[in-house]
Amino acid sequence: CGDVGLVSAYLQALTNEGVASVLVISHLPLVGYLVAELCPGETPPMFTTSAIASVTLDESGNGTFNWQMSPCNLKMAKAI
To answer: Pick the residue with more confidence: 22 or 76?
Structure first.
């Protein structure tokens, strides 16, 4: 399922180098474990197939879970 510690450390290293945005494409369960690793103070969301999420890392590597959307949410948003 991948090494969540390795991916988390890599994302934190990118943050330390000043990289502002990174797109991570992953599969379950790694994506859920990754959000839990990056945002330890928050309950990680349940991910449905093809869901997307946004996490912001600060300079110290602490993550904030911003939002999550499933394909169903995106379809409804497009209809509005």
So the answer is: 22
CB-count burial class (<10 Å; 0-12, 13-18, 19+) for 34: buried
Structural domain tally of the chain?
1
Output the pTM of the full model. 0.84
Q: Which CATH number do you get for residue 58?
A: 3.40.50.1240
Q: Are 39 and 61 in contact (CB under 8 A)?
A: no
Q: How far apart are CA 55 and CA 32, in angstroms?
A: 12
